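quick one, two chains, predict together pls
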Amino acid sequence: NAGVMQNPRHLVRRRGQEARLRCSPMKGHSHVYWYRQLPEEGLKFMVYLQKENIIDESGMPKERFSAEFPKEGPSILRIQQVVRGDSAAYFCASSPGAQGNTIYFGEGSWLTVV
Amino acid sequence: KQEVTQIPAALSVPEGENLVLNCSFTDSAIYNLQWFRQDPGKGLTSLLLIQSSQREQTSGRLNASLDKSSGRSTLYIAASQPGDSATYLCAAPLSSSGSRLTFGEGTQLTVNP
């Protein structure tokens, strides 16, 4: 039973380019979460999705960031026109239900904007 | 708004020592509390999950306690080993938001052989 799979593990983008981060949840999990960890900072919630629905995006920056979790395929976190301040580790997590369940994290995607 | 604080920020102990990591939260209306471990350049590994109705959970040399009334949780590590060296994070979702975890800043533990 594979864990939460994220790719790419490391991504380098020039300022102004787009970054796409993918997350496949654990088998049987329909709830996906994205968190960001900036250098020397803690993890911050970004967005919570279920299949085809965004449940809570209160942690997402208002511009340039979007997330989806289509009926088929992985969840995608998309960052348009990246800036140096977007350089961070982006973690995806999944759970089988909405509340009271253990949340499992992927290994993260490290984005570097040059 | 939930705020989670962990102390100490860093801890260095000799191998074999028992130790306690502390986590406090401002809003006691939590659904559960989860302890994670993060190794450098890696993701988070879930260690223990304590439901709001529970007082403690144990897994091997780890024991986590939860006191909702005082807004505190502790992670006790018995007979520490160098392999325990990592950053330990606690996180709690508000019962009103179910899934959204608020993390502490973590305690960076170093166990010296």
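DSSP finds no helices and eleven strands in chain A.
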